Amino acid sequence: MNPVRAQKALAVCAARGLARLEEGDVTALAAALWHEGFEPDVAALEKSYRADVGYLLDLLTRLGPLSREQKEQLRRPLESLRPTAPKETRSRDPLAKAWGASCDLTRFLPQVLKLQRRAYQHVPA
User: Fold this and answer.
1) Which of 32, 45, 66, 118 could form a cystine bridge with 70, CB 3.0-4.6 A?
2) Angle at the Cα of 37 from the Cα atoms of 9 and 54, rounded to 5 degrees
3) Measuring CA to CA, which residue among 60, 51, 61 is closest to residue 85?
4) DSSP letter string over the chain?
5) pLDDT tens digits, residue range 17-43?
6) How many Å is the Cα radius of gyration of the chain?
7) Could you give the CA distance from residue 32 to residue 62 in angstroms, rounded to a whole number?
């Protein structure tokens, strides 16, 4: 995935929320973060659903096959997205609750987790 498409997926999430993202956007974003060294520009995102973006990136850095240094580098800019008082959410995911995300990643996880398997061979688009 090219970095422009990954950034656009984050912009859609920030403008319309995680629930409106397509499965392909989330898996492509995960692949870009985990296998292509994509570093998102969170400062340029709309404010409407910034907590969703923070949750999405936070969870992907936790799930991903990244070194501790890479995880810390990717999480540092996320603090600017963290709400001071998270909104109520119906999610049972503690991380989604902590972020006040509008929904969680449950429906995307089966596809995203395939990218972690040893048999997965990443081919950049």
Assistant:
1) 66
2) 45
3) 51
4) --HHHHHHHHHHHHHH-GGGS-HHHHHHHHHHHHHS-----GGGS-STTHHHHHHHHHHHHHHS---HHHHHHHHGGGGGT--SSPPP-----HHHHHHT-SS-SGGGHHHHHHTTSTT------
5) 998 988 888 988 998 898 888 999 998
6) 13
7) 15
Length of the chain measured in residues: 125
Question: What tokens appear for 3 in the block?
Answer: 């970095």
**pTM of this prediction exceeds 0.85:** yes
Q: Which two tokens stand for residue 2?
A: 């090219």
